[in-house]
């Protein structure tokens, strides 16, 4: 039996509210990956508070449920955003979600996948997984962006090829490709009638979670597609120290976010110290 959080039934007391929430998210033009995440969050809440309709949930109930969860700060923040958006969609005032406290999210240092780890994973991977690793480590794509790569997104100009990257929040961007990346994408898309680089057996493309799982089979524990994005950011920044260019390549709305991805070159701090001596 399938017991995935995305497929378990929603209690009847919450079904209408969850359906309304999905309608509002789609009307707002949210990406499918965003919609799936938000719905997964509120479905979990719905099953936990199945005996209480959403318009009768109290602040104490929400706080008790949330306080019992063993979430990391980023995960907790994401759940709280989903719950607040649910009550906005339901237009319920006052909202019990107003009692959810703001979450302090510590900023971790950049954690690029070491070059030896990256190269070993590429060597151990099959063709599909190697392409997934490469698009994260050499092009800086998120896992949700990798799985959406399609031959239609390649744009040729007079000198090179660029890729339309379908980013989260509908913020698509255009990134230049090397000849090697262009050839890789064309090869991966060649076998799919629909042009997907990573087609699914059920039609369309594979899911971001499946891409991450494939990568985890060849990456050691502690390293992931996300740390490969850090690897890309760090190597791209080391090339000419242009943080704005790296920001645009990664699709960040803030340079401050990009700074959290880019570890300074090994000799940068020593050079700065020597210059000040």
Topology:
Layout: H1 12-27, H2 32-48, H3 59-67, H4 73-90, H5 115-124, H6 127-137, H7 143-146, E1 154-156, E2 161-165, E3 173-177, H8 179-189, H9 208-216, H10 225-240, H11 243-250, H12 255-259, H13 268-276
Antiparallel strand pairs: 1-2, 2-3
Helix pairs in contact: 1-2, 1-4, 2-4, 5-6, 6-8, 6-10, 10-11
Structural commentary:
Helix content is 52%, strand content 5%. It is mainly α. It has 2 domains: 12-99; 115-271, hpI Integrase, Chain A (Orthogonal Bundle), CATH 1.10.443. It has a 3-stranded antiparallel sheet with strand order 1-2-3. Strand 1 (154-156) and strand 2 (161-165) form a beta hairpin. It is globular. The relative contact order is 0.10.
Strand content: under 5%
Q: What do we call the CATH topology of the largest domain?
A: hpI Integrase, Chain A
Biggest sheet descriptor: 3 strands, antiparallel
Count every beta strand, where a strand is a DSSP E run of 2 or more residues: 3
Give the helices and strands as they follow along the chain. HHHHHHHEEEHHHHHH
If you compute it from the alpha carbons, what radius of gyration comes out, rounded to the nearest whole angstrom? 21 Å
What overall form do the CA principal axes indicate? globular
CATH class of the largest domain: Mainly Alpha
CATH architecture of the largest domain: Orthogonal Bundle
Whole-number tally of structural domains:
2
In terms of per-residue confidence, which ranges show pLDDT below 50 for 5 or more consecutive residues?
1-5
How would you name the oligomeric state of the polypeptide chains in this document?
single chain
CATH homolog superfamily of the largest domain: Intergrase catalytic core
Secondary-structure-derived class: mainly alpha
Could you tell me how far the N terminus lies from the C terminus, measured between alpha carbons in angstroms? 67 Å
């Amino acid at each position: 039996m399938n017991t995935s959080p995305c497929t378990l039934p929603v209690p009847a007391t919450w079904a209408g509210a969850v359906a309304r929430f999905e309608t509002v998210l789609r009307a707002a033009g949210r990406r499918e990956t965003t919609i799936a995440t938000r719905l997964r969050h509120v479905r979990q809440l719905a099953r936990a508070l199945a005996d209480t309709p959403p318009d009768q949930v109290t602040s104490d109930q929400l706080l008790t449920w949330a306080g019992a969860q063993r979430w990391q700060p980023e995960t907790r923040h994401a759940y709280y955003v989903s719950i607040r958006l649910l009550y906005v969609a339901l237009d319920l005032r006052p909202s019990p979600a107003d009692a959810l406290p703001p979450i302090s999210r510590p900023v971790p240092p950049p954690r690029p996948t070491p070059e030896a780890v990256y190269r070993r994973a590429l060597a151990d991977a099959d063709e599909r997984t190697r392409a997934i690793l490469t698009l994260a480590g050499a092009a800086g794509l998120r896992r949700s962006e990798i799985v959406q790569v399609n031959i239609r997104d390649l744009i040729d100009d007079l000198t090179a090829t660029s890729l339309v990257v379908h980013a989260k929040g509908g913020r698509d961007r255009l990134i230049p490709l090397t000849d090697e990346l262009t050839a890789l994408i064309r090869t991966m898309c060649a076998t799919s009638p629909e042009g997907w680089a990573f087609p699914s057996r059920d039609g369309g493309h594979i899911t971001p979670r499946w891409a991450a799982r494939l990568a985890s089979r060849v990456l050691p524990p502690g390293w992931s597609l996300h740390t490969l994005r850090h690897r890309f950011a760090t190597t791209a920044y080391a090339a000419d120290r242009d943080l704005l260019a790296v920001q645009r390549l990664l699709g960040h709305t803030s340079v401050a976010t990009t700074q959290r991805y880019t570890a300074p070159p090994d000799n940068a701090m020593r050079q700065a110290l020597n210059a000040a001596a």
